[in-house]
Amino acid sequence: MNNMTSAIKMLEQGGVSYKLYSYPTKNGPVAAMDVADYFGYSPERLFKTLVTSDHKGGYYVFCLPAEKRMDFEKSGLYCRS
Question: How many other C-beta atoms lie within 10 A of the C-beta of residue 66?
Fold first, then answer.
């Protein structure tokens, strides 16, 4: 796979089966709400997965509803605890 993301690496290392979907991105970044529309899903059914890392090499996985934005201040509190 050419575009191996951190999330895909973690799934494969953990032996988790998954199905990868793709969509056109000719015009730059695509909002999750646009992806829901492209696949014909209601936005309530679509979640985006964000993987972050800390300076110690730890990884944190966040799943957010399509219409929500990541609050980095709040997420940092979770990562420190």
Answer: 19
Distance CA 76, CA 65 (A): 19
Which pLDDT score, from 0 to 100, does residue 2 have? 61
Eight-state DSSP code of residue 14:
T
What is the 3-state composition of the chain as percent helix, strand, coil, each rounded to the nearest 5?
35, 15, 50
Q: Which residues of 12-21 are buried (b: 16+ CB within 10 A; e: fewer)?
A: eeeeeeeeee
The count of other CB atoms within 10 Å of the CB of residue 5 is 12
- Residue-wise pLDDT for 24-61, tens only, equals 888 776 788 888 888 898 888 888 888 888 778 888 88
